[in-house]
Amino acid sequence: MKLASDLKPIADEFDMYYSNFDPDTDRLIQLVSEMYEDFKSQPSYLLKSSLHELLSRECKVKLFKESPFFFEISSGRPRYSWGGLQSPVGSYLHNITASKWLDPYADALASDRAEGMIHCWNNPVGFDHHCPGYDRLHSIGVKGVINQAETALKKSGERKKSDFYTSVVRSAKALIHLAGRFAQKAAELAEAAETETERMHYEKIRTTAEKVPLNPPETFYEALCTILFFRECVGSIEGIGFSTLGHLDRMLFPYYEADLAAGRITEEEALKLIHTLFIYTETRFNAERSYHETSTTIIIGGCDKNGNIIYNDVTKLILKALLEGRYVGTKVNCRISSKHPREYFRKLAEIQTANIPSIVMQNDDVIIAARVKLGQALEDARLYVSGGCHEVVLGGTEVNTRADTWVSLPAILLRSLYSNECFDDYQSLYASFMHDAAAYYERIVSLKNEGEKHWCEFDPLPLYSSTITGCLESGRDITEGGAKYSSTAISLLGTATLIDSLYSLKTLIFDEKRLTLGEFKRIIADDYANYEDLRQYIIHRIPKYGTNNAVLNRFAANILSDIAKIAGQENARGGKYLPAFYPHDVFRLLGHKLGATPDGRKAHTPLSRGASPSEFIEINNPADIIRSIGAIDFTDYADSFCTELTLPRMSSERGIPVITALIEFFLEMKGSSLQFNMLNREMLIEAQKNPAEHADIIVRVCGYSAYFIHLSRETQDEIIARAIR
C-alpha cells in the first residue's frame, strides 16, 4: 500500500489488532456443541437460528479508534478467512453432518481427482462467491425483513414454511442484538474517551449501530456501514462466503449526492471511507507481507435496472482510492459497455499503466444478453455482480453455487483417444469426445444434485435468504430453491489446449495423414520423447487459437458452441446448470496431473487459461487475440469467460492510449471479460533472485492479483512464462 499520512493510523491499528487476532474458536465451538446437543432434534431452520442467537450473544465485538466502521467479531473465523466454510463455528452444522451429504460426494470423485480429471472441494454445493441482497437492506432494513416474515408467518399454514419464517425472524433479531452490542460498546468507549474527538468518534458509531442495519440507511456512511456489517457478521455467524461488497457506485451514489447537497459530507471524507474499506481487506489479509486469497470484490460501472449507465462521482472516488493506495487484496471488477464514455476506459487504462492489475473488465453488452438468453428478466440481468473473482451472479435475485468444481476438458479428450483404437474420420473422433464430455458432465450433475437435495435439511441459511427476492415470497430458504433464480455452474478448463489439440488431430491424422492415430497416441504418451521435431511442427506450423487464423477461429467457435450445450440440466433447487470457463489457478494444478496433449503441450505443464491462448504459442499482436475471440458467441455463456492480454510495461503516456484502444476493440469484438498483465520478464526473474529489492511488483495471477515475491516459485515461473511473449 502507498498511504497518505492521514490513512496510516488506520492501517497501523488494523495491523496491530490482526497481528494478535484471537478468533476465540475453542470457547465458541464448545458452546455451539453444547447447544447442538440440546437442540439437535429441532428442525434445521430453528436449529440454525439457535446458532445465530448464541453467537450474537457470545461473540466478542471490537471497535477501532481510527476506523468508523463496526463489523469485527471474534466468531471462530480465522484471520485469513472471509467467512464460509473457513469459519468452523459458523459452519458447525454443515461440518457435523458431513457424513450424511458431503462425504459421499467427495468419495465418489476421489479417483477422478487423483487422475486429474477434476478438481473440486469436498462439497456438492458452493459455500462461497455469494452476494446478499444489499439493495433490500438499503430499501427496508432488517426491520422491514422482520415485518415481512412476521406477516407471512401469520398467514402460513404449512409447518416447514412456518419454520422458515420463524427462523428468519429469530435470526434477524439476533443480528440486531449483535448490532446493539456494538452500540453499547461504542457508548462505553465514548464515556471513557480522553479527548472530545475520540468521544465524538464513538458517539457516531453508537448512533449509527443503533440505526442500521435495523433501519434503511439515510447517508453515505450509514449505507457503507450496512454493507460491511452484513457482509462480515453474517458471513461469520451463518457460515457463508459473501465474497462481494456489491455494486458500490450504483448503490452509494444517491446517498453521496444527497450528503453533498446537505453538507453532511465532503469529497475528501467520502474518499477516506472508501480508503478505509480497502485498507481493512489489505491489512487483515497481510497483503504486503504474504499471499492469502481475500475473495473480496467491489463492482463498479455497468448500469442500473433501467439500463442507465453508471459512471458517476463514486465510481471516480473508488478508482482514485485504488490508484492512490495501490491496493491488491480487493478486486475491483469494472463493468464496461459500448455506451460508457471513453473517460472511464482511460481511467482504467491509467490504473493498468500504474502497474496495479487489481481490476477485471466485464462486458455488459455480452453478459446481460447472455443472461436474458438464459431466460432471466432484463431488469434483473442488468444488476449482475461478480461473486468472487469474475464469476457472475445477479445481485439480490440469484443464488449461483460455483467456484467449487473444475473439469479438465483436455483430460476427457485424452481419455476418449486412449479408450478407442481408431476413428474413421475426424467427425467420429469429435463426436466421441463430445459424447464423453457430456456424459462426464452429467455424472458430476448427478452427484451434485444428490448431495444438494439435503442442503436445507442440514444447513439452511435464513439470514442470507431473507435478503434474496423469492424467499420471503415463497416461504423457502435459498438452500431449497427459494431464490428467484437458483443456478449452478461447473467450470470447464483448458479452452485453447482443447481447441488446438482437436485441430492438431484433425490436421495430422485426417487431413495430412502424416501419421496414424495409434502412432500419435504413443508419441503423446511418451511426452514427445525423440519427436521434438514433430512437436515443433505442431507448435509452429499448425494454426493455433489466438493467432487470428480465420479457419481456426470458426473451428473454435463451433467447438465452444457445442460445449455450451452440455449444460442446462436442472439442479436440486429447481434452477439450471450454466456452462462456465473460469480457471482460477486450477489450470496449473490440473495441468500438472495431465500428460502431453496433441497441441504440442508437454506433460505436467499448465493448461490454457479462460479464453486466452496457450502460453507457449507465439502471439505477434495482442489485437490478434481479440480478433480471434470475435468469432465466438459468448452469449452462450451466462457466466464470465475471461481473456487475459499480456503486455510489456509501458509509460502512462504511451500505455493509456494503447490500453484504451484495446478495451474499445474488445467491446467491438463482443468479448466477455478482459484483464491485463503488464509484465517485464527480466524484472520478474530479477525479483526471484532478489525479492527484497522488488517487493512492490504486483501481478495478475488469475481472478486475483498479488505481490509477485509472495507467490510460490511454481506460480512465479508460470507468470514469467506468460511474459516471454
- Biggest sheet strand order reads 4-5-6-7-15-14
CATH architecture grouping of the largest domain: Alpha-Beta Barrel
Gyration radius from CA atoms, angstroms: 26 Å
Total beta-strand segments: 17
Tally of distinct domains: 2
| Biggest sheet layout | 6 strands, mixed
Helix fraction by DSSP (H/I, runs of at least 4): 40-55%
Number of helices, counting only DSSP H or I runs of 4 residues or more: 31
Q: Overall mean pLDDT score?
A: 95
State the shape.
Answer: globular
Helix and strand content put the structural class at alpha/beta
CATH class of the largest domain: Alpha Beta
Q: What can you see in these coordinates?
A:
This protein is α/β, with parallel strands linked by helices. The chain has two domains: 1-80 and 131-239, no CATH class; 405-723, Anaerobic Ribonucleotide-triphosphate Reductase Large Chain, CATH 3.20.70.20. Helix content is 52%, strand content 11%. The chain is built from 31 helices and 17 strands. The chain has a six-stranded mixed sheet. Strands 3, 10, 11, 12 and 13 form a five-stranded mixed sheet that branches. A hairpin with a 4-residue loop joins strand 16 (698-700) and strand 17. The longest helix has 33 residues, at 159-191. The radius of gyration is 26 Å and the shape is globular.
